[in-house]
Amino acid sequence: MDPKFFFFAGFFLLGAVIVLIPCVVVIGLRSNCPDKTTDSPATSLTASLATTPAATTPATLTTTTATIWNESDYQSNSQYYQSLTNSHYFNQTDNLRLDRLSSPQLHPTDGRSLIYLRRQYHMPDLRGSTTTLHWQDLQTNKNVQLTRPIWGKQDQQFTWIDKNTILFLSNRASSDLTQIFQLTLPDDLSTLSGFIEPTQITNYSLNIDNLLVNRNATRLAFSCQVYANLNIEQTNARKQAELDSGRTIYKFDKLYIRHWDEYYTGLRNHPFVVSINRQTNGIFQLSANPVDVLFNIDSDSPTKPFGDAKAQWSFSASGNSFAFTRQHDEDSSVAWTTNLDIYTVDLRTAGQPTVCITCENIATDTDPSYSPTDENLLVYRSHSVPGYESDQYKVKLYNASLNTKVTLLDDWDRSIQAMTWSPNGQSLYLEIGEEASNVIYYLVNIYTNHSVDLLIDNGTSHNIHPHPTQERTFVFTYDTLLQPRNIYLYSLDSSIQPLTNHNTALLSKVILSKEAQKFSFMGANNETVWGWHVPPAHGTGQPAPLAFLIHGGPQSSWYDAWSYRWNLQSFSAEGYAVIAINFHGSDSYGQNFTNSITGEYGSLPYEDLKLGLDYALRNFSYIDRTRVVALGASYGGYMINWIAGQPEMSSRFKTLVCHNGLFDMRSMGYSTEELFFTEHDAGNYTVYDNPSAYEEYNPVNHVANWTLPMLIIVGAHDYRVPETQGIGAFTALQRRNITSRLLYFPTENHWYWYLIYLSREMLYVLPCVSLRSSLTSILIC
């Protein structure tokens, strides 16, 4: 290879693949302090939107803590970007400097204001983050930061109890452990001149990981990671004894050995339920010892690794019943089944047993949500196919008084992602993936009228929180491929109003692509397949290289959504055209389309990608077909390895990038943790029952055809696609004397975040580069 290739590569795009999953955010324990108010929000949305032993632990601690902090160390992203003189093309560092907004909640009685979470990063070096509570008046747009921002301190999972009270989790405790805190609000927040110091309510020896408060604020539930047969203090003592022993040998008698990014050494997420009361000084206290609902049961609730209390726990309207999701972890079948079940427990009498209300279904049942008005009703999401994590989620309505279940909208072929009750208990807001958008539907009446109205039909909407008194009025978060997440208000008249503007200054100083075009073509089986085209931020007036992105899952999609990892704007801002195909197996196009990938890993999606590339090169004439790079992660990384061994396709690319990709399907079937994933996708076969199902589309069998340079990226704590998959692929490349490089992250998992220097590493294997000089793109071969 011409040595000049390496020289020119040294000027390459400074981050085109930074998008491959952003930066490692190092939490520096620094202090900070921001402005107390922010400007009024942007004026409009984008044009396109329209029973058991008690936990013998100290129950409560009432103390107000003020952590020392250094005001001079704080700078908001608005302050930093306002100080910049010139605009520049957007890059992954800019992406990671964006404030992240979540969990909007309207005032619990009048709905005239809201509180939400804002996560900020240390400017400009990203060496730390902090999450704080913010309040905003919906009439005046007055915005106040309620809690003091301190680097490394994160507020989370709050409940607005009444106009003056918030309960939330935070690691602001002097122990640095996450505990329950109370924030007492003044009657008029608009006049607040300083931060409110929260009061610490609990002082346990373990972190509290989840929090849920019932509607009447008479009970709450929280979770700690405990040993199944020990209480909180006993668990802490055992952990300390194990640490002091210096032993690091683990013994296993069943699966899981490890899951996602942690070894299963006995600690479990257990829900603790406890009564609470308000003292004469207005501060809540725990009025009894918390009860571990799963005591002596080797199982998790919320489920690991991604379950949370908001989705998987629920109190009934009176607070006298508690529902929760748990997995059947008692034996090794947890690794090859997807059987989650919903249990309820009557809290009125101590020692009542938990009752399984879904055990007749051996597929997934999860996310119980009690009616806000009827003690006996709850809805939940349910699969019907055992062992299939991407089966269609349907909504079921359970009536405890009649012991009946009804499937709502049973004729739909879309999967329900989330559901939220209206305050009157008559209707449901539904979040649904539909043709690569996460849209909002309104189920008018769950009892008499199952008609649905489409409220938000584009972009990605989440975190619905209804107005307490006004029908069809709610706050929510919204983002697209072209704009990061903000908080919006949807009103009864269908108007949509943006409420937050924390990232306005940043966005005003970066140059982004202004177009994300959805296109379709005839794919495999002569069926319509969809994709995205994002042109370079500098325009299409000159030939541009192509970044051909392949999503993971595989049962997911490239959504019309902003990403802090694989962000299409990070490529387009570096001068690339971006094509992203939602091939057969992608979700949001109907369940049959999603199911079609089963047993077809290397066929239907591969054909779609070939035809999609044909379409892009034929219809977007500015793309330089001689400078095309393919990049993929997880299943997308599998497809990179598959393409590498198929000369008819690999010959169309200059280089390949594989992030945590599958290399040897047979080995994967024995080494991944979630066996249900590989077994179902192979056609419901184990490796030993039908080896050919794993060998038919196995990239390792085609290494003799590999010729392209490749960058391989792995995380040592990735237990979904174990590191040996990437190491094996790199070994094959090196043995064949193919230009290649392995980036190995010893502390990261399947979703690791890595530093900007990744762009330089990518240069090692990319023979064609895009060198940006000033605001123009100079393309070099």
Model description:
It is a single chain. By secondary structure, the protein is α+β, with helices and mostly antiparallel strands. The model is unreliable at about 1-60 and about 755-780 (pLDDT under 50). The strands form eleven sheets. The protein has an eight-stranded mixed sheet. It has a domain at about 510-770: Alpha/Beta hydrolase fold, catalytic domain (Rossmann fold). Strand 5 (about 130-135) and strand 6 (about 145) form a beta hairpin. The radius of gyration is 26 Å and the shape is globular. It starts with a helix and ends with a strand. This is Peptidase S9 prolyl oligopeptidase catalytic domain-containing protein. One of its GO terms (molecular function) is serine-type endopeptidase activity. It holds the Pfam family Peptidase_S9. Keywords: Hydrolase, Membrane, Protease, Signal, Transmembrane, Transmembrane helix.
Summarize the structure.
This protein has 781 residues and is of the alpha+beta class.
Task: Outline the low-pLDDT stretches.
Answer: 1-58, 754-781
Largest sheet: 8 strands, mixed
Q: What is the correct CATH architecture of one domain?
A: 3-Layer(aba) Sandwich
Fraction of residues in β-strands: 25-35%
How many helices in DSSP terms? 16
Measured between the Cα atoms of the first and last residue, the distance is: 13 Å
- Could you estimate the helical fraction of the residues in percent? 10-25%
CATH level 1 name of one domain: Alpha Beta
Could you state the CATH homologous superfamily of one domain? Alpha/Beta hydrolase fold, catalytic domain
| Basic shape | globular
Task: Give average pLDDT, whole number.
Answer: 89
Give the strand order of the largest sheet, numbering strands 1, 2, ... along the chain.
Answer: 35-36-38-37-39-40-41-42
What is the structural class?
alpha+beta
User: What radius of gyration results from the CA coordinates?
Assistant: 26 Å
**The CATH topology of one domain, please?**
Rossmann fold
Number of strands: 44
